[in-house]
Design goal:
elongated
């Protein structure tokens, strides 16, 4: 059996120069890093972008497949809207289930936002 260094390609020639494969790999890696860079929101370059992830509030027992919120869940959704009232909310997303929409809708309404629905079964 040959040693690993004899099987794997070398990224340097005998003269110590980078091979074409090494240069291409380095460019791809740098390109991927550049693509992952975050861009600050317009206006304040030092402002950080914050995502608020919320699980649906308490559900009622009215429909086993797609329940709405219970009274306690509705109160919690209103409390969430009050908690986020002074935050710069720019988008609100929910799945197609009533309980998730009813949880997010009060906060979206408080910021005059349209609730955007997404399919939780699809990749982000």
């Amino acid at each position: 059996m040959r040693p690993l260094h004899a099987i794997s390609p070398s990224f340097r020639t005998r003269a110590g120069r980078w091979t074409l494969a090494a240069r291409v790999l380095a460019c791809l890696c740098l390109g991927m890093l550049a693509a992952c860079a975050t861009i600050a929101p317009a206006g304040d370059p030092s402002a950080a972008l914050t995502f608020v992830v919320v699980r649906h509030a308490e559900k009622a027992g009215d429909d086993p497949r797609d329940p709405s919120l219970s009274e306690a869940g509705q109160a919690r959704a209103q409390a969430l809207a009050r908690l986020l009232a002074d935050e710069p909310l720019t988008a609100a997303h929910a799945t197609g289930y009533r309980r998730t929409q009813q949880t997010a809708q009060p906060a979206a309404d408080a910021h005059s936002l349209r609730l955007t629905l997404y399919d939780a079964q699809l990749p982000a």
